[in-house]
Amino acid sequence: MENIKFLSKRRLALVSMLAAYVGLSANAQASAYAVSTNTISNFGMTFSPTSSFSAFTFSSDAATLGSTGNGNAATMNAPAVCIGCSYSDSYFSHGMSATEYSYGDARITNANVLLGSGGASTIGESSINNGTGSGYGNNTMVGFFSISAPTSIGINFDATPFLLTQLAAGGLASTANISTTVTIRDSNNVTVFSWAPNGKLDGSETADTYDLNWGIGQGGSFTGSAGHFSNSVTLNNSGFYTLNIAMNNSVFVSAVPVPAALWLMGSGLVGLVGFARRRAI
Could you tell me the keywords of this UniProt record (predicted)? Predict the structure, then answer.
């Protein structure tokens, strides 16, 4: 008799748990969110002795939401890709949303950005409730110069990175990545200078405020006010050189419907209730 009472209480508790989970399934919503953005400004280059310098820039972006994807490229300001949203040239966190969206955008505000005019921004952002989403923005700035004698070159700029990842119930994955690199190649396409700021003073650097080449997983965040970056290199061989600066930000998110996840858990509880009932007979 005591066993029957004990098992009846257990069955009642399990039924209560199942009811609670079913109630949750009516209101809970899966979600995963990530954003990665960066703006470079006040870019400057110095040559000693002086040298002629020319440049061009181009930007590209892409986004996916489930099976839907799109991408754009342009000389300076690539049209935004915003699936499920209408953002454009909007380089800040728009936040987790009940309405799914993916956003990728990139722009360079002035063709002479390498000479100190204007800035460059990129963003990848996505908020998903069921399935997967991604966002990507990329800017590439290319410069050409020639030297006839050993030349010292100074490179400096400011950057404002921001990364955030969030997971709610049902969220599976949320990652945000950032990358910024500076390279110089000679006329034989040999790399003579390579710089990937990592937040530490290395080699000839005089300023390296933040790591601009890393990523974060779910539940991480990084907010950087305008940080300064400065480096230099001396080229000894005369000839033509190519400068390449690449910056990109990307995110990936994944989630499953919460009601489905709770149903699986509820099914397990039903089995436990049945087991308790058989033991009580």
Answer: Membrane, Signal, Transmembrane, Transmembrane helix
- Domain containing residue 270: 2-26+261-280
180 close to 38: Cβ distance less than 8 angstroms: yes
Determine phi and psi for 229, rounding to 5 degrees.
-135, 135
Query: Quick one: 90 and 157 in the same domain?
Result: yes
Same domain? For 137 and 201 the reply is yes
How high is the pLDDT of residue 39? 96
Query: What tokens appear for 113 in the block?
Result: 């950005």
Cis ω for the linkage preceding 49 (within 30 of 0)? yes
Place of tokens 């098992």: 7
pTM of the model: 0.82
Residue 232 structure tokens: 């230099």
Size (the chain), residues: 281
Does 266 share its domain with 252?
Answer: no
pLDDT of 115 reads 81
Residues 106 and 83 in one domain: yes
Into how many domains does the chain fold? Answer: 2
Residues 92 and 208 in one domain: yes
User: Measured between alpha carbons, how far is 256 from 169 in angstroms, rounded to an integer?
Assistant: 9
